[in-house]
Design a protein that fits this description.
Blueprint (H helix, E strand, L loop, with lengths): L2 E7 L3 H12 L3 E8 L6 H14 L7 E3 L13 H4 L21 H15 L9 E5 L4 H9 L7 E7 L14 H5 L1 H14 L3 E4 L1 H4 L3 E3 H8 L6 H15 L4 E3 L3 H8 L4 E10 L10 E3 L18 E9 L1 H13 L2 H7 L3
Parallel strand pairs: 1-2, 1-4, 2-3, 4-5, 5-6, 6-11
Antiparallel strand pairs: 7-8, 9-10, 9-11
Helix pairs in contact: 1-2, 1-10, 1-11, 4-5, 5-7, 9-10, 11-12
The structure holds alpha-D-ribofuranose and calcium ion.
């Protein structure tokens, strides 16, 4: 029985790695992909996402454009990291396919309603695991506009935040920093609606890595297929950061859906700092291990208890990504782009 998933992306080099894994792994049923501005403007994100799905032979998966900007913050991209086109400036032919005409929130609403209906009356559980890999703007809009959609959500496994470190700033991780209000809304709504949440944050994000040598093997697959694209994405990061290996990034969150035992999690209260001058966008993960009397804690209990990923079987996830993407070699051979 496959696991139904929907990815919310800001493709992005590592979002592209995640899309390849989700599109190709036999244990997942990729129902849709929704796009938000983040690493790159949302139009580039849509184009990049369609390009990746085309390389994976998966243009059957609907892709919808979502929020172009955060709820309150002004959009700030990360093209200095992901390249001017947002996907490593690989000179890879852009897909000519078109996005679904619906807004991301409408596509999510429709897919989740169908999943809830299909799971009713003792039918097998086909509720969807949402995998946000971008600023959480689309999910915040969904959960506040259509709270009934929660009936179709099995869980949320999101890449974002951190218990200990930052990257966009010393305090905050990029996806949460980009739209802190959206992250706070999602955690609040998930707590209110009883949606389980797993946070795949920076504490584990950088650990599953693929070497330049393994990437070169993928590139040699050629044929403008998924394996070649995956290799070029890793090679781009190695070159961009002058390193012998590169993280699979967002793809690690998809690995956590496929192989949950590869992460060690603790269920902890999590809040998002919205006001701090130097700490805005920080995920405040409460790791106090004392029984403590929260009645006297001026901040009380956080709205959401989140399964926070604190350790990862990095090698295992890197191999999972490599085996899945390189396994596409034969797919590339049959359905390769001309
Ligand atoms: O902080 C890392 C996150 O920000 C990843 O999702 C990356 O793609 C960027 O969106
Ligand atoms: Ca991302």
């Amino acid at each position: 029985m496959t696991t139904p998933v929907i990815l919310d992306v800001d493709t992005g080099v590592d979002d592209a790695c995640a899309l390849l894994l989700a599109a190709l792994h036999p244990g997942l049923d990729l129902r849709a992909v929704t796009c938000a501005g983040g690493n790159a403007p949302v139009e580039s994100v849509v184009r990049n996402t369609l390009t990746v799905l085309e390389a994976a032979g998966r243009l059957d998966v609907p892709v919808a454009r979502g929020a172009a900007r955060p709820l309150l913050e002004h959009p700030v991209d990360a093209t200095h990291v992901h390249g001017l086109d947002g996907m490593g400036d690989l000179d890879w032919p852009k897909a000519r396919a078109h996005a679904d005409p619906r807004h991301a929130v409408e596509l999510l609403r429709d897919e989740l309603a169908a999943a809830a209906a299909a799971s009713a009356d003792g039918s097998p559980d086909r509720r969807i695991t949402l995998v946000p890999l971008a600023p959480l703007t689309n999910l915040a809009l969904l959960l506040r506009t259509h709270p009934e959609a929660a009936a179709g959500i099995r869980e949320i496994v999101f890449m974002g935040g951190a218990a200990h470190v930052g990257n966009a700033t010393a305090s905050a991780e990029f996806n949460v920093f980009h739209d802190p209000e959206a992250a706070a809304v999602v955690l609040d709504a998930a707590g209110e609606l009883g949606i389980p949440v797993t946070m795949y944050g920076l504490d584990v994000f950088y650990e599953p890595r693929v070497s330049a040598a393994r990437a070169a093997e993928l590139v040699r697959a050629g044929g403008r297929g998924a394996a070649e694209l995956g290799g070029r994405l890793i090679a781009y990061q190695c070159q961009r950061f002058s390193s012998a290996a590169a993280t699979i990034g967002d793809a690690g969150a998809v690995c956590a859906v496929i192989d949950r035992s590869g992460v060690m999690t603790h269920r902890l209260p999590v809040r998002v700092e919205l006001a701090g001058t130097w700490s805005r966008g920080r995920t405040i993960v409460d790791r106090r291990d004392w029984s403590g009397d929260l009645d006297h804690d001026p901040h009380g209990v956080a709205p959401a208890a989140v399964d926070v990923c604190l350790e990862v079987e990095a090698e295992r996830y890197a191999e999972l990504w490599l085996e899945t993407v390189s396994g596409a070699r034969s797919r590339a051979g049959t359905g390769a782009r001309t």
